[in-house]
Write a structure and sequence with these properties.
Blueprint (H helix, E strand, L loop, with lengths): L13 E5 L7 E7 L2 E10 L13 E8 L11 H4 L4 H15 L4 H4 L3 E10 L4 H23 L11 E9 L2 E4 L3 H4 L4 E8 L4 E8 L6 H26 L1
Parallel strand pairs: 4-5
Antiparallel strand pairs: 1-2, 2-3, 3-5, 6-7, 6-8, 8-9
Amino acid sequence: MRPSGRNLGDIRSISIETAVTKHAEGSCLIKMGDTHVLCTATIEDRAPSFLKGTGLGWVTAEYGMLPRATNSRNRREAAAGKQSGRTQEIQRLIGRSLRAGVDRSALGERQIVVDCDVLQADGGTRCASITGGWVALRLAVNKLLKSGLIVSDPILDHVAAISCGIYAGQPVADLDYAEDSEAGVDGNFIMTGAGRLVEVQMSAEGATFSREQMNQLLDLAEAGVAQLVAAQKAAVA
């Protein structure tokens, strides 16, 4: 039995509320169980300098966690004067993942920055950030299309992410913190709406895993991402 009482393949309850901030071109609040992330997308009229003259746009991300997102207060990274290695790794992952679903030539020489701020953490914050970040990105791109600043939709497909792992010897989908902290194997699976893999992060935390177990986790991830994509579609409809 999982600590939450969920079946092995059950994901947590998901809700995506859009247009939650006044000024951002795209925004949403995604809740995956007790993990809550505010995602906003900002359109900038210029691309990074390394893309000048290429005709290509850019999608990037920043990630942060509020001091009391967890059960004890974490010091703000701004107060420490630098981002942690974990934060840098996660925001690079979010950016890479979102770019996988974008035709950068159709976006033109502009940049969209997706900010993901964790309000409350209970495992899977990077996955929730990617899933919600895509919604914010989609809404921002909709504004570009409506304004006529771009004529072709640069969004190629949905992108969503879910964590899966081996907990108490069993493959489980969408780990919460209680499971993540005890998992023998932990993985993050980023996929498109068509089911193609964008990135897989998998590691043995307490025990090695077999090829068969990896395939079981991939099957769980595929089914979980399909549910997340359905939630994305409903949110932006």
